[in-house]
């Protein structure tokens, strides 16, 4: 049900309640720390935009262009656009969408392509004509791609001709669904005739609760799910993030994270538009282009994910890596072993770590200059607990079943100091419409919820993340639920093991996971490792690694198996892939590819090559793993 919002009808207080109910705004705001406080000004901001019927990110862009037409909006591979020039380009694309494709307000349109100026033009043009953008992962092909296009019900797949090789194999299936493939490239857009401005009446019916976009989950455990983003949420995240980061027009914000994903979308592009600053867009991440692009563009803030930082730290030194203008690195997933070395080597004063998920509730922030909050993703002080301790909790998990543990009365058990547990956020059963849901997937939406947690009838949202809080209230990310495994009745956090192995000088990168071994309960620890530059299997010190692992990890957490691989597998958003490695384990009949295996046999002081006879010995129990 869509209620019309007009400031004249509702008082500010009533409006605040209404907006909060619709969008769970206060919930999100409250979870912010360090500058992101719940503020009536955010509510009035939304109310004013709703009243003037200018609720789109495109509207904000248009206003910035009117204010400072000559100011630099976008730098991409040496090309640049001022705000004014970019809005003109958007108008050309928007007119093409309307005149040639007949795109209507409210229609969902699938967009597929890598980072480029044209991609950003299309996103803004679709926004401008009131369409709802379905941000398809350009890395998809086959079943995954067809699934996403079908799910969102788009008539078109508007695609960068660069990803033709992913799209063409699906042409027959897309034809059957009635989906037309439309390719674009830079020269096509440059040749479009100048267009009239988009009439405001086109978007007159879009309200804060209208669906604005669909952003897909990575689908590492099945087909991608589409997360619905409302117009109000999109607007507010951009507005608040710009404020939280203190962005000003003179900032230059570099991202090479994919634009189809929530992080580049809501934590870089929309905040930059709200601030009227300059976006420096990288086509994709590469350690060769990263520092040269950052330095040449005079970027003042860069966006990261943890794995990007690790790559850079493992990479060869670059003449630009300290000679740049970056003041702040902003992102999520920076691991403890990377944090301080990253700051020091690359000469970046502030690391601003955030924890949030596209399909999650709540977010935490740490603006870190020094050791007290280093490696943490948030701080929960006394005041925080007094105000919100009842809305966000960590509960103990059964590591094997991945279910929430229950006490004798059937209720969940809160974690104590330093005890890892899944983070839950309380839901108000009356406000469910505002909780992030998956598009056309009620089952998956409901699976994220759980009731009767602390009392009958209560309702909570499962974050899927394991965290712990120390006695100072510092919050640490422990593992994604399902990654932590049990061995010899102990819980092993794959992240914590990986952090330790990552410090071994001959290891560049590592991916830790638990594998099933016949005849054993729980899972045995395995680590896929990429050797540091110049190190080979003949020069790698397998004895030193065994000694090091035993000295820094409890016995049960020392990986029993190593899988030596030339490169780790990542998703397009640089999340590490564990699924295939877990499935294959060390079973010679399941393992694919050329990776080499080692193991730590009982009583051995070093890792030794692992062969089929060793696997047979484990299976027939002539060898017992310890
Ligand atoms: C997806 O991206 C990865 C890493 O960038 C690449 O290796 C792979 O070939 C890509 N797959 C497709 C289908 O584009
Ligand atoms: C907005 O809604 C009104 C009333 O339903 C309708 O007449 C009008 O055509 C709609 N405008 C657009 C651009 O869809
Ligand atoms: C493992 O985790 C479970 C659930 O959080 C907890 O009850 C148990 O005590 C942990 N085991 C150990 C040995 O820490």
TrEMBL record:
Its main location: membrane. The keyword Transcription does not apply. InterPro entries: AMP-bd_C, AMP-bd_C_sf, AMP-binding_CS, AMP-dep_synth/lig_dom, ANL_N_sf. One of its GO terms (biological process) is long-chain fatty acid import into cell. It is a multi-pass membrane protein. SUPFAM superfamilies: Acetyl-CoA synthetase-like. The keyword Membrane applies. It is found in: Cell membrane; Lipid droplet; Peroxisome membrane. Pfam families: AMP-binding (PF00501), AMP-binding_C (PF13193). One of its GO terms (cellular component) is lipid droplet. It comes from the Eukaryota. Residues 61-378 form the AMP-dependent synthetase/ligase domain. One of its GO terms (molecular function) is long-chain fatty acid-CoA ligase activity. It catalyses: a very long-chain fatty acid + ATP + CoA = a very long-chain fatty acyl-CoA + AMP + diphosphate. Residues 496-573 form the AMP-binding enzyme C-terminal domain. Keywords: ATP-binding, Cell membrane, Ligase, Lipid droplet, Lipid transport, Membrane, Nucleotide-binding, Peroxisome, Transmembrane, Transmembrane helix, Transport. Belongs to the ATP-dependent AMP-binding enzyme family. Acyl-CoA synthetase required for both the import of long chain fatty acids (LCFAs) (C14-C18) and the activation very long chain fatty acids (VLCFAs) (C20-C26) by esterification of the fatty acids into metabolically active CoA-thioesters for subsequent degradation or incorporation into phospholipids. The transport and fatty acyl-CoA synthetase activities are genetically separable and are thus independent activities. Esterifies VLCFAs in the peroxisome matrix. The VLCFAs are actively transported into peroxisomes by a PXA1-PXA2 heterodimeric transporter in the peroxisomal membrane. This is Very long-chain fatty acid transport protein. It comes from Trematosphaeria pertusa.
